[in-house]
Protein 1
Amino acid sequence: MMFTGEEKRRAARIRFRVSDNLQICYKFLSHLEGFQCDEIFEAPILNVSTGGILFVGSLPGRDWLPQLGQGLVMIGANLMVPEKKPVKGLCSLRWTRPSPVQLGPRYGSGEKYELGVQFEQLDNSNKQALEKFLIGHQIRTRRFRVRDEMDRRFN
């Protein structure tokens, strides 16, 4: 039996817009010679689940893609949860493509990619913090969505 990406997904994705200002700070981690990078990148998040993150970000170079895809280079990620400690995890790249999203100068110049990463290591306290944040976000945005819908109906 062949599964699509949606059928294999274990956790529901919560979508965000670039304007929501949910950020990830990330760093590439490797023991491979020629694939060392001390730079810490910052990027906007497009969606999050307890299984992983989709964000629009930069790479140290296009030549890093094969090593990332094979899991030879990992990604240390800090999800910058508003008003809380960052949620920290170790991730692997699951897929990537050039991004059509246009970002301002805040995120630097150069080619941007949509990076879909999966949590490989996320300790219990970070997982609980992520779950709490996602539930809270869903409750807040649902409340706003319901209020907006009522305003449209009665105005």
Protein 2
Amino acid sequence: MVSCSRCGKTGGKEQVSGKGLSLVTLSCEEGMGSGRVLVYCQECWIAMADCVAEVIPLEMVSPGVLLDLYRTGKTTSDPFTACQLVFGHAKPELVREAQALINSQCG
């Protein structure tokens, strides 16, 4: 089950779809181009607005959207952990693709 990384809220009756939750990229260090991928409820991402760079409603996040965050350098979060947070489980092919994108940007 997907829940808020900060407070643990699951999104109410719509727990399965993650409705009410959003993928956020969080970077509290100035000048850092990439942030950590987390899942926040609306209250938490508003409370952390100073550090939040991207907010995407969870129901709009597909594997392609997650990969675009890696492709554009908006995150370098561990892909295994990011998949677990966003989708509730790690998708091996998605983890491999995201890791390849991180590696290509580091080289």
Protein 3
Amino acid sequence: MKTIRCILALAAAFLLLAGCVSLKTPVGYAETSHTGGYAYKAISTDASVITVAEYENEDEDMGSLDYWTQAARKQMTLSRGYIFEEEGDFSCPQGSGHWMRFARKYRGTDYLYLLGIVVDGSTIYALEAGGEKAVFEKDLPFMLKAFATLN
């Protein structure tokens, strides 16, 4: 009986943790339960996507929003071949955030990628959105509004 109570308590804790990230789903996107390891994921009929991933901020003193923004920009441009285009700040219930827009051509098609970073103490939130430029570009304002609803 004690083992069953422990298993139920662990299952309840897992369910509480699994549902703790929310985002107002942008117009034209449908939230999916098949998240592929993301805390949140929604897709459009044009195959554009918006996701939220959570990471542990192991060094809260050094791992500031500025630090993770610089690290992400270098990863995107130097390692992944994206071209940095624009950036800005946003705020959400989890705190202050910073977004960056990148572009890349892949197999002859232009893509846009939007990355938002929020650091809330020991948690880093990576908000990602992207798709083919021809269809995703019109969604950019909706993505930035969605980023501001991270909770």
Protein 4
Amino acid sequence: MAPRPLQPSHQFIGGNLATNAGGPSCLKYGVTRHWVLGVRAVLGTGKEIRTGSLSHKDVAGYDLTGLLVGSEGTLGILTEATLRLAPIPEARGTVVATFPSLEDAALAVQQVRQAGITPEAMEFMDGATLSAVDDAFSLGLQNVQALLLVGLSGHRLAVAQETQDVYRLLEKGSLRVDLGLEKNEIERLWLARRSAFGSLARRAGNLWVEDISVPLSSLATMVRKIDLIAQKHDLLVATLGHAGDGNLHPQFSLRGEPDEEDRIKEAIEEIVSLAVSLGGTLTGEHGVGQEKRDLLPSALDQGAYKTMEEIKKVFDPLGIMNPGKVL
């Protein structure tokens, strides 16, 4: 069992707060909002407010802390945050499995979660991603079509039992499953996953990174149809993501072809529409910003969207807080 540090999506607290960042470990430990007890913020009106308290439980009034965390700077500037802490897990374990396709890996993820096991992280990469990663790290993954990394953490005995349980579940549909790899091998695989974006960019030169999330019951369908949509628009796509919570990151390679960006935009609209139709959402952790601002109304209840517009006006009546983003 090899130790592996928790890795938030942003290495700075401000970035985590602004986007309500998730990342690999949020499957077990939750996203940033779950760890914020309160904030101090300056609103678009110039008024400074403090939210939350030091209490473990606090349901006094509306959840303004939850509203501000993840608002991407559109409601106010966060100047201070009080965070909840947790002890470092006593033990960690990793199970590594390869599959004929990412769809098969997605089905295996569903089986593990249905068995009542909540790993710290379940990360997968498709063949295109693994090929790029192998160029950078020489891990012998060039011909692997799908890789699943399952990270477990907690009490030593619980981790030992869960590691065995995951191994038995993944044995059924995988090409190969390992739980006894050397510490340095496991660390290299996790490093490869964390470096997947950079490895793909290194190969492609330029990437269009996407972020959607679907229910686990729809994960296999989603990864299969992402490939079909890419083929339809003659695009190169590599898909990876936080498989355990259905958060996918299709990466489109930009080859400098005529009308390529238009084709990518059309593909993304189809992918977002499909994700929403499957009960998912157009962003799991990267936020809305400018790129998905026009797609946001299609992903939300119209009454909820109008309410968000009204909230924006209350917090930022002059429209000066990160203007032109989200709404």
